[in-house]
Amino acid sequence: MIDENSYVYCTNCIHFKELINSIASPIYEVYPGECKGCYPFDFEDSKPYKMRPKYQRKPIILEEMED
User: Is the pLDDT of residue 51 over 90?
Assistant: First the structure.
């Protein structure tokens, strides 16, 4: 559970790709799909979780390090 005062970035959310696709689409939607109810503006800036309640962190993928 994320504390409502924790700061989160849209760029780290699993829904970020949907937001970018919406912005790039000729039929621009301000709040695409799962981004409805969030504050998607200034997506590269952190905002409190309470402003982005649909935020879900992307899974962290660790790449194997080569010797």
Answer: yes
Is 58 part of any domain? no
Does a structural domain hold residue 64? no
Would you say residue 1 lies in a domain?
no
Separation in Å, CA 46 to CA 6, 26, 43, 65: 9, 27, 7, 30
pLDDT in tens, 11-25: 999 999 988 888 887
Say what the pTM is. Answer: 0.76
Question: What band does 1 get if pLDDT is binned at 50, 70 and 90?
Answer: confident
Residue 40 lies in a domain: yes
Which residue range is the domain that position 11 belongs to? 7-51
